[in-house]
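With this grant's support, we have paired protein sequences with backbone structure tokens. One protein thus recorded is set out beneath this paragraph:

_____
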Amino acid sequence: MRAVDCVGALIRDEQHRVYLQRRTAERRLLPGIWDIVGGHLEPGETPEEALVREVEEETGWKVRDIVWTMADWEWEWEGRVRREVDYLVTVDGDLTRPRLEAGKHDKSAWAGPDDLDLLMVNRTDGDRRLRDLVAHAVRTRFTDRLRLEPITGPNGVLTGHAADLERLFTDPWVARWYDGSLSPDEAAVRVAEHQAGWERDAVGKWLAYDRVTGELAGRGGLSRMPADSPTASAIATLVGPEWAADRLELGWALVESARGRGLATELGRAGLDYAFSTLRASSVIAFTERANTASQAVMKRLGLQYAGEIHAEGWSPDASVVQPDAPFTVYLANHAVRAQEVDEVVDDAVRWAADQADIRGVAMVGSWARDTARMTSDLDVVVLTDVPERYLGNEDWLGVFGAVAVVRRQRWGPHLTEVRVCTGPEADI
């Protein structure tokens, strides 16, 4: 393989947007186009050293972390082939004030899901590869243990996910619920459909990889159900017209080696966050066969509420083959309902505390107090008391929050002890 000639930095902010800068009209190479930060290696430099130098020279920021090596590809200009490696990075500095390199760039922007066409402005050769690379970075998410990549086909920069999708469906558990495996040709068609869905609907499914080992863990995330499908119509009738505006469905499928570790819940939380934070959706549903109790348990852990049942093609509890009218359970996530639940918990806590002579105060803290909470955010309530042993040695008082179970106790210094509880079927308070 030829040596690396140049590097690119896909700098993301907290909103998962990618930093772009416009090349000046006087540049000989690709004048007037929007580009990512990057450049050629100097003699003796490693790609990582060149990356750090280019970021500081072109923006004034300093690389904090190289999150992921996203792409390793070759491109040609005026008869010369260059090998480029692109990295997803975070940086330190004032992200509102990049220092544009004089004579090379004249404007900057942050590209989110709705800004990807910037990469095609003044692009007279019609080359979409950089645009698709930025789209991949904008749509990728990371959890504590997973890297979630939007499913794509090969595009000249990325190798695509056909082989991994085919491998996913060879897993017996996955094949059982999706009624079969995929051939290489079927996998190629399927990834093209997923990629088209991302472009059409601004949302789609991810493939999930272990962040440490890179091993395939599964598939999951969101999809936008066709408005005219019988299943979407049945769900809209069940949960109401608010969901029908976006028709977002949350799902997951994990290989056997990834099951039983809480990764489905982790993946589901990322999907809910994408729906409510990125897409600003009002509600999301998840549904599965009544027989799939494992997935229903995940839906409950995510805080989704049981909405009822519909019938569609799938596995029935009392049949050994796929049925045309199997019962499916439907669960609903609604941010407004979640906020109302939080208000009710806080009100209950305040009323209870008012009747306790040894309680000095009750406070809501964290993201719900700051009005920055997400659908999956925990509710943090601080109880101030002169007799903490009364409340740490006896769990009966937790009944103020309804039916709860203690899932963790942790001491944070001499004056604060965390008692983490869940309500109902393991949904975090």
